[in-house]
């Protein structure tokens, strides 16, 4: 099946069960419709989490069609970043890094969040996506922290960018991907889609949600 077909086809329940850890086999895979994505036990879906973020931060978010969700409850080898199409009821999932300050031993699991300058850690909370630009990491996108736990995002230069250390091959070989300095770093096979579909003025919501548990 071609990538375009993967992203537009109806998704099965089997896909959601394999989306997290089996996602290491590909940089970006399709995940199921929201009806099939409810979590056993918790009963939360991608749509639940996306709408929660939009409701909390509605005054700061202009575009509400697509939401980015980083679920740091999952290990870095899993496809734990979701581009959630609320209108279409579908999502795609991607590998994404966490900060080295959030995982000092490089276990592949995020241990803590921090908003402190110099922490090199990931920050939880809602971000508004800003403008695209080209910097030292190539094509990138600025992020504005909207809550106390990520209020220093701009001054810390927490952005979306590409990174060589984020790939399905590295996830397979090492059981984890590399760490950033707190930024949301993506592999080359995901960066185009993330930058294009998020665009400016949308919500990126980061936390420990348990979606891919």
Q: How would you summarize what this structure contains?
A:
With 213 residues, the protein is an alpha+beta fold. The protein has helices spanning 3-8, 13-18, 46-56, 168-174, 188-198; strands at 28-31, 66-71, 81-85, 90-94, 125-135, 138-145, 159-162, 184-186, 203-207. It is built from five helices and nine strands.
Description:
- By secondary structure, the chain is α+β, with helices and mostly antiparallel strands.
- It contains five helices and nine strands.
- It has a single domain, classed as L,D-transpeptidase catalytic domain-like, CATH 2.40.440.
- Strands 1-4-3-2-9-5-6-7-8 form a nine-stranded mixed sheet, sandwiched between helices.
- Mean pLDDT is about 85; it is low at about 1-25 and about 30-45.
Number of DSSP helical runs = 5
In CATH, the homologous superfamily goes by the name L,D-transpeptidase catalytic domain-like
Q: State the CATH class.
A: Mainly Beta
Briefly note the CATH topology name.
L,D-transpeptidase catalytic domain-like
Q: Name the beta content range.
A: 15-25%
Structure keywords:
213 residues; alpha+beta; 9-stranded mixed beta sheet; 5 helices; 9 strands; 19% helix; globular; disordered N terminus
Ordered list of secondary-structure elements with their pairings:
Layout: H1 3-8, H2 13-18, E1 28-31, H3 46-56, E2 66-71, E3 81-85, E4 90-94, E5 125-135, E6 138-145, E7 159-162, H4 168-174, E8 184-186, H5 188-198, E9 203-207
Parallel strand pairs: 2-9, 7-8
Antiparallel strand pairs: 1-4, 2-3, 3-4, 5-6, 5-9, 6-7
């Amino acid at each position: 099946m071609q990538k375009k077909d993967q992203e537009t086809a109806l998704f099965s329940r089997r896909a959601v069960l394999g989306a997290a850890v089996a996602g290491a086999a590909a940089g970006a895979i399709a995940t199921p419709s929201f009806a099939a994505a409810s979590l056993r036990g918790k009963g939360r879906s991608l749509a639940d989490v996306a709408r929660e973020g939009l409701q909390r931060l509605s005054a700061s978010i202009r575009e509400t069609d697509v939401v980015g969700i980083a679920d740091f409850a999952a290990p870095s080898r899993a496809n734990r970043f979701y581009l959630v199409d609320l209108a279409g009821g579908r999502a795609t999932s991607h590998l994404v890094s966490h900060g080295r300050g959030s995982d000092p031993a490089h276990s592949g699991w995020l241990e803590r969040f921090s908003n402190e300058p110099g922490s090199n850690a990931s920050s939880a909370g809602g971000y508004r996506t800003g403008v695209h630009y080209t910097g030292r990491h190539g094509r990138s996108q600025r992020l504005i922290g909207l809550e106390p736990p990520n209020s220093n995002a701009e001054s810390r230069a927490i952005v979306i960018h590409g990174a060589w250390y984020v790939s399905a091959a590295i996830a397979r070989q090492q059981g984890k991907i590399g760490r950033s300095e707190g930024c949301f770093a993506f592999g080359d096979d995901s960066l185009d889609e993330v930058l294009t579909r998020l665009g400016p003025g949308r919500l990126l919501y980061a936390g420990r949600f348990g979606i891919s548990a």
